[in-house]
Amino acid sequence: NTIGHKNKVNETISKIKKQQNKAKNQLNELNANIDFIDQSIDLTQNKLGGIKQTVQNMVREAIMINEPTDVQFLLESNTWNAFIVNSTLYQLLIKDQKQIFDSLIIKQTKFHKQYLADSLMKTILIEEEVELIKRETNYHEQLKNFKNYQKTLDNLIDNKTSFFNKLMSEYQNIGLNLNQTQQNIISLEEKLN
Which pLDDT belongs to residue 181? Predict the structure, then answer.
C-alpha cells in the first residue's frame, strides 16, 4: 500500500514538474513579447519625435512668414497676369502646406494611439508575467512539499523493511531455538527411556 502511495506521489511530482516547465516556457514567451513591444514603443516614440519636430518647424515657418496681402502681390507683379499667377501659386502652396500639416497631425495621432496600445499590451503582459511567476513559485513549493513527503515515505518504507527483516530474523532464531529445544527434549526422552 505504501509503495502504491509512493507511486502516486511520484506521478504527482512528475505532473508538477511538467506544469512548472510549461509556466517557464510561457514566461520566456512573455518576456520575448515584452521585448518586442518595448522595441515597437521605442520605434513609435522615435517616429512621434520626428513628426513633432516637423510640425514644430512648420509652425515656426508659418509664424515667421507673414502672409502677403493682395496689395503686396500687386506691387511685386509687373502685370495683372503675373499678379494672378503669383497669388494663385501662393494659395496652392498654402493649401499644400496645410495638407502636409494635416497629414502629419493624423500620423502623430495614429502613432500616439499605437504607442498607447503598445503600452497597454506591455502592461497586460507584465501582469501575466507576474501571475506566471506566482504559479511557478507555487509549483516549486508543491514540488518541494511532495519531495519531502516522498522522503518521508522512503524512510517509512525503509523502517518497515528493516522491521520486517528484524522480525524474520527473530522468527528464524526462534525457529532454530525451537528446533534445538525439540532436539534436546527428544534426546533427553531417549536417554530417559
Answer: 92
| Residue ranges of the chain with per-residue pLDDT less than 70 | 59-75, 77
What the block records as the C-alpha cell of 85 is 499667377
- Report helix, strand or coil for 19: helix
Write down the pLDDT at residue 135.
Answer: 84
Question: Average pLDDT, whole number, for the chain?
Answer: 82
Question: CA 23 to CA 129: how far, in whole Å?
Answer: 10
Q: Which 3 state secondary structure label does DSSP give 34?
A: helix
Residue among 146, 141, 160 at smallest CA distance from 3: 160
pTM for the model stands at 0.49
CB 129 within 8 A of CB 30: yes
Q: Which three cell numbers stand for residue 44?
A: 513609435
| DSSP sequence for 54-120 | HHHHHHHHHHHSPPPPHHHHHHH-SSHHHHHHHHHHHHHHHHHHHHHHHHHHHHHHHHHHHHHHHHH
> Which pLDDT score, from 0 to 100, does residue 62 have?
62
How many CB atoms are located within 10 Å of the residue 168 CB? 10
Tell me how far apart the terminal alpha carbons of the chain are, to the nearest angstrom: 54
Task: Report the sign of the C-alpha dihedral through residues 68, 69, 70, 74, in that order.
Answer: negative
